[in-house]
Write a structure and sequence with these properties.
The complex is a heterodimer. Chain A is mainly α. Chain A contains 12 helices and 2 strands. In chain A, strand 1 and strand 2 form a beta hairpin. Helices cover 77% and strands 0% of the residues of chain B. In chain B, helix 5 runs antiparallel to helix 6. The chains are: A mainly alpha, B mainly alpha.
Chain lengths: 335, 257
């Protein structure tokens, strides 16, 4: 089990790489690297698999994105089908360039999705909850309660369903779900009451909240104003001021978060060790990212418009992408 | 003053969220990583809103209730993922709207946002779309109390008419949710610099085409699913939630030493 932060660094580097290129060769290579990593982490004995595998998503999203873009973008030199322009809405040429560009969007989406699949597979839910900022401590408690009780709720649903089936109740119409839903809701609310009593008797924050202090409230309002005006200025092409205001606003909001977090006491019972494997994973991802950004500068961008050409490829930049494979090599060592 | 500041935070985050959602359509194609930047901005304004809203979530009763209801709703969504129903039908909005209506907008907001977070955590669906989904589902719950003055004005409390109002509200949000979510997938799927989209009018027309081809049917299914669910389950659910509201309104008082 690797440290969760190492995975977040890996994911961030992967996202940066994916979102800065649109070259199908690099994207395919990246998807292959991510998928290999996902396969290496995934153990077949784990019960809950991701509901949608990247492969299936790719089969669905790439044709869809290609189709939509072909319908929307009507430029390009290689006309495949010429629909008479007098036809409403769909009139105009369908070009190979637009089709390819849409497929590239789909490919990029697949790459993003695959990178996130790796995170979901690699990091247990418990560690993901730890990433909720300390300022959101009450909400983190809510999330832990919900994650803990969700399987219980599913089991309860099953039990109620069996009980009603024994009584001869059948599921035909929507209304037949009512005898299933109401006991579930009532039971859940009763359990919430018990849980609240148990928490209060163990001294968990009694009555009366601690609403935001004036300072944090002011900071978040200032931050929001900065983001809003910054965004609008950027839209009006005042990029320098806009960017400045946006960054300032972001920092004010992060500051508000930090201010609130500091007032909440925090103890760590067990530290997850950070060993050489974590260094390897983060190092590999960062080297891959910087290497790709520098070496692939000329070949990263690829635009099929106006005439389709074969995408350029730089062997060194492609090799750099293999840095994302490092976790696959080290993840199962000494376990 | 407090109320004013609070309203200001709501208004600002709503404005930023809406602008970020609309931006890819209104000003197409700037930079390659616009969708990720927008996700970052939406995430930040969502953080500010959460900071404000969670101020209430510090007593044990609120937290326990929210946690259990979130677990229930996420489990319902899990059932939806496991057994694919017709089209975009999703049972989660019913509970978000009804609890928002009975327990207040902040409760509804947190239930909406956390339901999507928790179900993403348990089904392994964490991704760049998550902040948008959380924010929009939060809006659903946050806006539900807006119905209260209407219900009061029509003397609908406790009558069939109240359920009708909630059902129509669910229908509206079912359609609107799809429209807003489509704006985000527009940013990701159509991506930057579809070169034909140069003028505002052309982009809006393209978006309309995109919307009709990809999601109108799903949204209709979702909207009418909400409507049917509310009509079928609305009255008993409201009764139960109101009964428990009374049972939950007690206070612990530490004994004076």
């Amino acid at each position: 089990m690797l440290h969760a932060v190492a995975w977040v660094v890996w994911l961030t580097a992967a996202l940066v790489v994916v979102s800065t290129t649109r070259n199908p060769l690099y994207l395919t290579l990246a998807v292959a690297a991510f998928m290999t990593t996902a396969r290496a982490i995934h153990r077949p004995d784990e019960a809950l698999a991701a509901p949608l595998s990247p492969g299936r998503l790719a089969l669905f999203v790439i044709p869809l994105a290609a189709f939509i873009n072909a319908l929307l973008a009507r430029t390009g030199d290689s006309v495949l089908i010429a629909i008479p322009p007098t036809w409403p809405i769909i009139g105009g040429p369908i070009t190979a360039e637009a089709l390819i560009y849409g497929a590239l969007n789909g490919l990029m989406l697949t790459a993003l999705f695959t990178a996130f699949t790796v995170l979901n597979l690699a990091v247990p839910v418990r560690d993901l909850i730890r990433f909720i900022p300390r300022a959101f401590y009450p909400l983190a408690v809510v999330v832990s309660i919900a994650v803990t009780f969700a399987p219980t709720t599913l089991r309860q649903m099953q039990q109620i369903r069996e009980a009603q089936a024994i009584r001869g109740q059948r599921m035909r119409r929507l209304r037949d779900w009512l005898p299933l839903f109401m006991p579930l809701l009532t039971g859940g609310l009763e359990r919430a009451l018990q849980l609240a009593e148990a928490m209060a008797s163990r001294g968990f924050a009694g009555e009366g909240g601690t609403p935001l202090t004036r300072r944090t409230q002011a900071a978040s309002i200032a931050g929001l104003l900065g983001l809003l005006s910054g965004g609008l200025l950027t839209a009006w092409r005042q990029t320098r001021w806009g960017m400045g205001l946006s960054v300032g606003g972001s920092m004010a909001i992060v500051g508000a978060l930090g201010l609130t977090g500091r007032s909440i006491p925090h103890t760590t019972y067990r530290r997850t060790p950070w060993g050489y494997r974590e260094w390897l994973v983060t190092g590999g991802a960062l080297v891959a990212m910087t290497g790709f950004l520098f070496l692939g500068q000329a070949t990263r961008a690829y635009n099929p418009y106006p005439t389709l050409t074969w995408p350029p490829f730089d062997a060194l930049a492609g090799t750099a992408l293999l840095g994302f494979l490092l976790p696959a090599l080290v993840v199962h060592e000494r376990e | 003053m407090r109320r004013f500041l609070r309203a200001l935070i709501y208004a600002l985050t709503t404005a930023i969220g809406l602008l970020a959602l609309v931006a890819p359509v209104v000003m197409p194609g700037r930079t390659t990583n616009a969708p990720l930047l927008l996700t970052f901005v939406v995430g930040l304004s969502f953080v500010a809103l959460l900071l404000e809203v969670q101020g209430d979530a510090v007593n044990a009763k609120f937290i326990a209730l929210l946690g259990i209801l979130t677990a229930m709703n996420a489990a319902l969504r899990f059932a939806e993922v496991a057994i694919p129903g017709p089209g975009g039908f999703s049972p989660i909005f019913f509970l978000i709207i009804v609890t928002g209506y009975v327990y207040g907008g902040r409760f509804g907001f947190l239930l909406g946002a956390l339901t999507l977070l928790v179900s993403a955590l348990i089904t392994g669906g964490v991704g760049p779309w998550l902040p948008y989904q959380m924010l929009t589902a939060g809006w659903v719950g946050l806006s539900a109390p807006l119905l209260r003055p209407w219900a009061h004005w029509l003397h609908a409390e406790g009558r069939r008419l109240e359920i009708g109002l909630l059902a129509l509200f669910g229908l509206g949000w079912g359609l609107l949710y799809g429209l807003l979510m489509d704006l985000t997938s527009w940013a990701f799927i159509v991506g930057p610099a579809a070169p034909a989209s140069t003028t505002f009018r052309a982009t809006v027309r393209q978006y309309g085409l995109f919307y009709v081809t990809t999601s109108l049917v799903w949204d209709l299914v979702r909207g009418f699913g909400n409507l049917a669910l509310t009509l079928a389950f609305g009255a008993p659910t409201l009764r139960v939630l109101r009964r428990f509201y009374k049972r939950f309104s007690f206070t612990y008082r530490p004994q004076a030493a």
